[in-house]
Amino acid sequence: MEQDKAPSTNDGLVRAEFHDIGKIVDWQAVGLYSPGEEGGEPHDFEKCVEEWDVRFAAPTWESVFRKDQRLRHNWPKSAGWIAAFFADHLAASLSRLMDEGQKRNFRSAAQKAGIQTAPEYGRHNLWKDEKNAPDRLTTEEELRELIQFLNGGPSWEDTYRDYGRWIDARAEEAFPGLNVTTLRQHSKIVGKLARVIQRLPWTDEEVAQGWQEIKATRRQITVARYRLVFPQKPYRTRDLEVFAQIERATADAALRFPDNVLLRVDDQIIATFESEKAQQEFESFIVQLGFHLRKRSRTEALSTLARTGLTSKLGHETIVYPDLPEEIALPICENCQFAQGAHSWSPAELSDEDDEPIADERLCDRCFNLRKTATRLTKLTTWRDGRVAWLFHDLDLDECLSALTDLIRQRLRARYGDELVQNFLSGIEATYPLLSDFVDDYSQYLGCLKKALVDEFDSDRIESIGSWIACVRLESQLEASSLIRVIHSAALEAFPTLLDQESTLPFRVGVSISNPKYPFFAHWRAFQDMRGEVNVSMIGTGQCGFRLKSWPKIEQAMKATKRAAVHRFASATAVSPALGDLILRSKETGRFELSHLRSLIPDHLSLEGARVLSHFLTEGEDG
Amino acid sequence: MDKTAEKGRCYARYRLECDLLCLGEPTRGGVFHPCAKVFSYTALIGALKARFPHPTRRIHAAAKFTDKDPDANRPSILTFAPRERAVDISAVPLQIEHLVNVTAEMFVLENDFTVQWPESFQFALGALKSKGFGQMRAEKIDEVKGGNPQQGELAVRLPIDKTVLEAFDLRNQIRPRYGYLYRPDTGYPREQGGTGRYHKSLFEGSFVAAHPVVLRETTK
Question: Is B28 in the A-facing interface, judged by CB distances under 8 Å?
Fold first, then answer.
């Protein structure tokens, strides 16, 4: 998980991470709340203004007391309250859809239908179907300690260090069924968003307004999703350095623009900007590192975003390029084809340990330096026999939001029934904090997968490049089955609910197999054309895709089928799909020898997919 | 004055067929010849000029693969190791990506010169022509007359050159995707010692406003 870092306290910007810190308190246990009380639990510390020794000089309190117009004189001329208000609204699961009055109506309707609506404070993990036990501060002493701690103006990092246990356990929203996002991620995203919003040029008149006036503001921010792409077509193993560079670039961008970058994973970033200038600075920073940016963005008034949601549809994709010359003199760089190939990459550059096809290549400055400074993949260069399987994960953030939205809606329908959901919650969508929770678990999944691969194959047979690309040496093609089985087990452990869904997983896994000396370029092309949740490519044979949850059935069917029969089927299908289909349906072979294979088609596998995967059972074929 | 100009913009549509085609991208490491999945203006014009040489008259043409037949335009890889004759030893094996069973449509902007071309002809396109690749068979189908520019995705690669863009009525680069295409400086191709440069170009997938002949067909 990324560390929760908020920027320096001296910049005058609101520290809105703290806005919901009161949610880690059990206000009823402390004696400051009774169920049924109007307004709900006082987690904005509204009962602690007097006699509890709150020191307003501490900057941590500004976002906590954002709703109290009387107390704003403690932060004169600060737009922090506006920023915290909007940021919380944009990052919240429910407030966009229902105000307090509507929540009461919903509860009333649900209770009439016999559905329990008591708050659920523990966070429910949607993709694991696991719930945290509610864990909050329960004594007056603990509350006083928390207040004293906050009076010291601590950083969010320090606060998480001391109170992380409760921040992690608590859901951002206790509305039953919507307790799916951690308070931690909600607080982090609100903090970043609020500082971006506060940087808008608010006037004193606006700051002095009330919420009813300010919520119609036409002040705008930009929301953008980026994917870093590189023009290089990786050919030699040293070219794979570009993946490590992408990870460094996104990490550097997050450090340089800590508030603008809401979240990042692999080669993708989600960001918000207070101005066109801020967005251009961000984009320039990344393109000058040598990448192009695929971008989708939307600039919208805060008042509109508050209605439509931060995650709603962005514009068409454009590509941000660096300054490109009108002409390039010969020779062009063979790697990126966007600059002159001023340097020669020749056999003299290769050491004795490299054993790659030897021919001069013309490279530009960037591609030459990329190769020259690349971390050596020492294991890969020594693998000469057997097979290698390149493993590639691709998480699409748009598909992820969509999959998470489906999960939430299913959960709500299961709990409340279709009618109540349709009447009150039809507009519910996954939020960026929820996405951020998922990205944390996805990163953990990649780590667990790597450990599982080491257990199965031994670390000597695994080469990692970045967190989402790896290469595994296989003693034979038969081991490819084990590889996919490991992936399936790790994914089932990490995302059991997602694997069970009808809709597809939000990430894809590419497995591309060949002999060790095949150029990475061919595998990379397969990964650019993935056809299913799992995409298996056997270079020289073909490519197929299938659902990850289908793997146990597929593996069982393959093992239950005689090799000779599979080989006949595969050979026939290679000549003509129609011939392969005929063999599958024939009385002699289709119903007996190939019955297990036949049962997979078409629900779990296409005919072509069956042909490609059948090579797992055939030793010694060249890929 | 070009008499065909009286007709307004008009493109002759040809059916193109070919058994093996390698639309050469720059070779990788000297051993891997990738194949582009799209026709580039510069390669097509170079091939047509070789077939119909003329010192002054311009040719503007674009071609798109057709996808009506699922067996057409299939990618394939050929591996072969040429033998060095002097020592009779195979060199490092070459891998050539190519397309088989190619069917496409070509649109040639009509002018006084191109209107005289025969109804059917052959020409050589792409890489490895000496090995039998790229033997294109063209047969005229009809003419595409007039038409207003539409918004859509580019299905071809076009150099950013005023006359080329005008030839296809490309008026607006709404969401461009850039790359570079080789254009010879003189009439001699690179293989014959000519020089040239790479020019900034619009690549497939660019969202533009242009004549439909260069746009991807959209399914309704």
Answer: yes
